[in-house]
Amino acid sequence: MIHPTAIIDESATVATGACIGPYTVIGGDVEIGEGTWIGPHVVINGPTRIGRDNKIFQFNSIGDVPQDKKYEGEVSSLVIGDRNTIREYCTLNRGTKHGGGITRVGSDNWIMAYVHIAHDCQVGNDIIMANNATLAGHVTIGDHAILGGFTLVHQFCDVGTHCFSAMGTAIGKDVPPYVLVAGQPASPRGLNSEGLKRHGFDSDTLELLRKAYKTVYRSGLKAEEAIEQLNCLGAHSPEIQAMAEFIRTSTRGIVR
User: Fold this and answer.
1) Which of 65, 77, 103, 239 shows the greatest Cβ crowding within 10 Å of its Cβ?
2) What is the percentage of the chain residues whose pLDDT exceeds 70?
């Protein structure tokens, strides 16, 4: 399952059921899991760990050194989970000592062409990143988020679970869970209702989240006041509590 033109470093570990395409280069300290398919002309450098049943298409650069002037050659890594699809011309960089040393991509993600995931990013599970979506360093993307084409996310921003960004959105502050954003700079445009319905959120939960959105964005309350109202509104709702906690712990402030 390894093409004869592929170059595999002797310290790399490739599972028996993995497939490596023509002219692909696998560097030292790389692990590739069972069932993972890697197309032609891919470069993977280590330390990088890639799980099971991933599909990595041609012309990707995976696990190379971070684009960070503070990087001083320290050992850092990239960890990729299972069942991800990574389309053409993507770049995923390793971490730095300033960000914990690990760039992490979860499982079941759909990463389209020309996506960039920079050093120390923490990307969750079941995320869609459309063509040319770009994450600067130290960005966190929550589970089930969707980033539209050409979305830009500034360093140290957090994008919450089940968020949606429209095409060409420039995110410079944190985006609370369940919120849809658009524009340059990004601004809230409502609840990600369609995405929530597709993931099985019932009508009662959606109505509660709409009230939470209005509390945060249409009531004129300061963030601290909105958090208090959310805690009262959703005392027994894990979704509302997650939103309140996200806002409370935001270090960059939330999009407003």
Assistant:
1) 103
2) 100
